[in-house]
Write a structure and sequence with these properties.
Layout lengths: L2 H18 L2 E4 L6 E4 L5 E2 L10 E2 L4 H15 L3 H9 L12 E4 L8 E5 L2 E5 L33 H14 L7 H12 L4 E3 L5 E3 L14 H7 L3 E7 L5 E6 L7 E3 L11 E7 L4 E6 L2 E4 L11 E4 L2
Antiparallel strand pairs: 1-2, 3-4, 5-6, 6-7, 8-9, 10-11, 10-13, 11-12, 13-14, 15-16
Length: 306
């Protein structure tokens, strides 16, 4: 057997060994040193939102607790259920079935029927104008849509989302002051109630009721613009501004508490198509396919800093 043959035989073995090796890393959720990769990988953006992005550095205990106490809340929210159905989101159990919901400010009990790419009404169409939900475009200036650490409007859903993403995409973020604050919010935070112009209360989480004046022509627009867009950008002063535009409708964002020279040139964009559960575009960061290594995670991938 010649030398080249030996090399050809050995390289695949070395790659396999490297993929199955573990190392000690800091779990972004608890800040403890843990073995990575964990046996169960964490979906940074919940899998039920059609995201394949995984973070192997989240320990199994945090993954389990967060799934039960935080992620499960996403999917008990009517707005999220509407968006999942109309966008054809590929959840862990596949695409959700069509649904009907009662509408607010509706004296004739008209129901809204939601299907993939379509809204329609069940009931007396003469009362269609009475159907009012909250304006999906009217909250850009509200603290409820941001994960402001200084204004105390950062809920535990916000904190988990940004801890997972920024610990993967921003160097030395996991041990930063911002990460410490997010961990406190994630495990001990609440949903802040904020005043709306009409005197109602609005919970300061990323999944508020923010759809309004739905007509049967809105479904195609939501379906067409269904993508999740993640953007992480360094500012000239060294702080990081990040947002996650979920379904082109919900947009939590955050500004780091500290500034670092190494953060100034960060400019990352990641686009996810929830209908096919795939990352369809990424810039400013290196994507690593995990499907072969972890076949049970459909289209599974992670990102590493370039």
């Amino acid at each position: 057997m010649n030398r080249m043959s030996i090399i050809v035989m050995v390289i695949p073995i070395l790659i396999k060994v490297r993929l199955n090796m573990t190392e000690k890393v800091t779990c972004p959720y608890c800040k403890e040193l843990v073995e990575s990769p964990a046996s169960e990988l964490e979906h940074v953006v919940p899998e039920g939102l059609g995201s394949p992005i995984l973070n192997p550095n989240v320990c199994n205990e945090c993954n389990t607790i967060a799934a039960d106490k935080i992620d499960s809340l996403y999917f008990n929210n009517t707005t999220i259920k509407i968006l999942q159905v109309v966008t054809g989101t590929k959840t862990k159990k596949g695409m959700l079935k069509p649904m009907e919901i009662n509408t607010t400010f509706n004296p004739q009990n008209i129901k809204l029927k939601i299907e993939k790419g379509k809204f329609s009404f069940v009931g007396d169409m003469s009362e269609k104008s009475a159907i009012k939900l909250i304006n999906k475009n009217g909250f850009s200036d509200f603290p409820a849509v941001s994960a402001s650490l200084k204004e105390e409007s950062c809920s535990y859903e916000h904190a988990k989302l940004f801890l997972g993403l920024l610990s993967m995409c921003v160097p030395n973020f996991v041990t930063s002051k911002t990460a410490d604050t997010l961990r406190k919010k994630m495990w001990h935070g609440t949903r802040q109630e904020l005043d709306l112009p009409n005197g109602e209360k609005f919970h300061g989480d990323i999944f508020g009721e923010i759809l309004k004046n739905i007509t049967d022509t809105d479904g195609p627009d939501l379906y067409k613009n269904r993508h999740h867009i993640i953007h992480i950008e360094g500012n000239p002063n060294g702080s990081i501004h990040a947002y996650v535009d979920l379904y082109n409708t919900l947009r939590p964002n955050i500004l780091t508490l500290e500034r670092k020279e190494e953060w100034k040139n960060i400019n990352i964009t990641i686009v996810i198509d929830p209908e096919i559960k795939k990352v369809v575009k990424y810039e400013g960061i290196a994507k690593i396919d995990l499907t072969e290594q972890y076949p049970k995670y459909e289209n599974g991938c992670m990102f590493e800093i370039q």
